[in-house]
Automatic annotation (TrEMBL):
Coiled-coil region(s): none
Pfam families per UniProt: HTH_1 (PF00126), TOBE (PF03459)
Region (Required for dimer formation and molybdate binding): 125-133
Gene Ontology MF terms: DNA-binding transcription factor activity; molybdenum ion binding
UniProt-recorded name of the protein: ModE family transcriptional regulator
Length: 263
């Protein structure tokens, strides 16, 4: 029986990057644009953008350099980081296939397959936003801790967790973590000036995309360092606020709605 290994690159509770997304990255690089790469990979343009945003947020660095404009949606080519990600993925798959082939004879007759050993090790999360960053401050009392995570040079996201959770996760200043925020928890305020609100987080950015359906809209903000934040709002609200690509806007959300994951 032919054995094929499938590698998933991820961190705990963060959407996985597997072969399909790596193939998309390769297709975009080969075709020279995101639109053409999406077609080659059998994805919609929106699905391709979402996947590329997720990869950038996960690895913490841009994997593609893009230029906007044109009927095809603009051009794109791999950054040095993007090249290294693809090369590392291909090497990991080859090495994993070698290990699995070596394991299978040893497991013969045991009722255990190689896939049993690795299944369940990886989880997916329903959180639309997963951004890697570094803890810059922790303010704690006996019950709760506010954790400040820098996800870009001028962008800090605050999470409110229990002090027990902070201790169990081993959170400390300088540690790299991933912050998770579900898109429905993110509110959008148009303009550059942060609105007056009790929400702890108000992240300034620029609208990158606005996808509108019958009643809902997904707004994707560029928040710096080629990272994005997505919000799920009503289509009517998006129309009222005139949220077009390039428009300044702020993403507003409570610290209690931010989860922290560690590697």
């Amino acid at each position: 029986m032919s054995i094929e290994a499938s590698i998933t690159l991820k961190t705990k509770n963060v959407a996985a990057v597997g072969r399909d997304r790596i193939r998309l990255l390769q297709a975009v690089a080969r075709e020279g644009s995101i639109a053409a790469g999406a077609r080659a990979a059998g994805l919609t343009y929106k699905a391709a953008w979402d996947a590329l945003d997720a990869m950038t947020n996960l690895f913490g660095q841009p994997l593609l350099e893009r230029r906007t404009g044109g009927k095809s949606g603009g051009g794109a080519h791999l950054t040095p980081t993007g090249l290294r990600v693809i090369e590392a993925f291909n090497r990991l798959e080859a090495e994993m296939a070698r290990v699995i082939r070596a394991l299978e004879p040893e497991l013969a007759g045991s009722g255990i397959t190689p896939s049993n050993l690795v299944s369940g090790y990886f989880m997916k999360t329903s959180a639309r936003n997963a951004l890697r960053g570094t803890i810059t401050a922790i303010t704690a009392d006996t019950l709760n801790a506010e954790v400040a995570v820098a996800v870009a040079e001028d962008t800090t996201i605050y999470a409110l967790v229990t002090s027990e959770s902070a201790d169990n996760l081993g959170l400390c200043v300088g540690r790299e973590v991933v912050v998770l925020i579900k898109a429905p928890f993110v509110m959008i305020a148009p303009g550059r000036e942060p609105p007056k609100t009790s929400a702890r987080n108000c992240v300034q950015g620029t609208v990158r995309r606005c996808e509108v359906s019958g009643v809902h809209a997904e707004i994707v903000l560029d928040v710096g360092a080629d990272k994005t934040l997505a919000a799920s709002i009503t289509a009517a609200s998006a129309a009222d606020m005139r949220l077009n690509p390039g428009s300044p806007a702020c993403a507003v959300f409570d610290a209690a709605h931010v989860l922290i994951a560690i590697d």
